[in-house]
Amino acid sequence: MMRKLKNLICIAVLLSICIACKKSDFLNKKPSSDITEPTTLTDFQLLLDNTTVMNSTGGLAQASADDQIVSYPTYQAATATERNAYIWNKDVYGGDTGISDWNYPYQTVFYTNIVLEGLVKSDSVSSTKAQFLKGWALFSRAFAFYNLTRTFCKAYDAASAGTDLGIPLRLSSAVDYVKPRATLRQSFDQIFADLNESINLLPAERPSTNLNRPSKIAAYALLARISLDMRNYTAAEQYADQALTLYSKLIDYNTVSQSSDSPFSKTNDELICNYGQAPVYSYLTGSHSRALNRVSPLLISLYAADDLRLRIFYGQSVDVSFYKKRGYNGNGLYPFTGLATDELYLIKAECLARRNETQSAMDKLNQLLILRFDKSKTYRAVTASSPADALTKVLLERRKELVWRGLRWHDLKRLNKEGANITLSRTLNGSTYTLPPNDPRYVFPIPNDEIALSGIAQNPR
């Protein structure tokens, strides 16, 4: 079985590399005779269970956000891409190629297209397992397309989405054609089409162990996240409700170790679908070395003394600065970027506040927060005097709860479109760098090697 998996991965990797080759180059290369083409349901499942490809996301958003600060020596040791992303340089890549934020999602798309095309040819296409695999592949393709749009496209605006640039929507595993960039609206239409089709094919139950595999809960949770990014708060609330109706467990943080550097398990009760950042940008986003980066003091200052998240999420070094402990999805060294119930509670609370349901918003928020504070002390429920006050308090808790998950950057894009007017600023080696609201640098450039190969339109910076 392991040999077969390796062979399947070899052919998938070979073909995905050939996407970046000329047609004649590919046709002139004969693959090894012991490489097996995926044709059976077992083959397709092995491809989808390859979590290194299927459950990895990029890290540019985390590297550029305001969760962390780095010293100048650490900054100098980092890659060109890390350094430029950290100070929001117009030239992000500085000559670096093979950019993971572009390549990983498109490798996922390639795998899913192989599975979807193979299932059509399969004699077992109508079986229960085949239908599940189809739903899984559609979910994974949607997640990959979504990660590409929020990294390489503007924040969604219904008024301009029909002309704003989206992404190349590769819906075939063929390696001999180039797709231009679709519009942003077309890109999101495809994402929603894939997810809506997947819902009818995925199981309603959350998997107890294989959390890399999606469920209806995961599809609704992803739809809620995407709708929030689009500022479609009515839809975001509806999808959050549908996900929470199926699964709504939260962890009592009084039961979580405050001393462990890996406080969460990879199957903890709040996880819905497990994704993580690809192993890139270690100097800015990794949690394997306390010496590399530090949590922003401004972020640390937001936590109350009896807020257990302060001691569970972070450790404190001898110089009293704080570092990020290992991931929310177990002992991973890089940020958790998947789906979890705490995010759904916050989406629901935010949407309630935005439709002027002040008390209901606070009730939903307190359902989460009461499990985040030290029970040896009296918990004081959060209250709000108005919908605007409720929204401010929900967004504050979103900032404190969803740290190191690759979400902050996209929240900044969305909230600045709402008029939040948040300016980012860093000081490094005596120089100050700023990023104004709605700046073009919130949209990362398409990697230069992709532009050279395909000729697709570049993003202005």
Q: What is the rounded distance between the termini? A: 48 Å
CATH arch. level architecture: Alpha Horseshoe
Residue-averaged pLDDT: 91
Shape from CA axes?
A: globular
Query: How many strands in all?
Result: 10
Strand order of the largest sheet: 1-4
Helix content: 40-55%
Summing up helix and strand content along with how strands pair, one would put the structural category as: mainly alpha
Radius of gyration: 22 Å
Biggest sheet architecture: 2 strands, parallel
The tally of structural domains comes to 1
Flag low-confidence runs.
1-35
CATH class: Mainly Alpha
Beta-strand residue percentage: 5-15%
As for the CATH topology, it is Serine Threonine Protein Phosphatase 5, Tetratricopeptide repeat
Series of H and E elements? HHHHEHEHHHHHHHEEHEHHEEEHHHHEEH
**Number of separate helices:** 20
Write the layout of secondary structure elements.
Elements: H1 2-19, H2 23-27, H3 41-48, H4 51-54, E1 56-57, H5 60-64, E2 68-70, H6 72-77, H7 80-86, H8 100-121, H9 128-152, H10 184-199, H11 216-229, H12 233-246, E3 271-273, E4 276-277, H13 282-285, E5 293-295, H14 297-300, H15 309-313, E6 314-316, E7 322-324, E8 339-340, H16 341-354, H17 358-369, H18 387-401, H19 408-417, E9 424-428, E10 431-435, H20 448-454
Parallel strand pairs: 1-4
Antiparallel strand pairs: 2-5, 3-8, 6-7, 9-10
Helix pairs in contact: 3-8, 3-9, 8-9, 9-10, 10-11, 11-12, 11-16, 12-16, 16-17, 16-18, 17-18
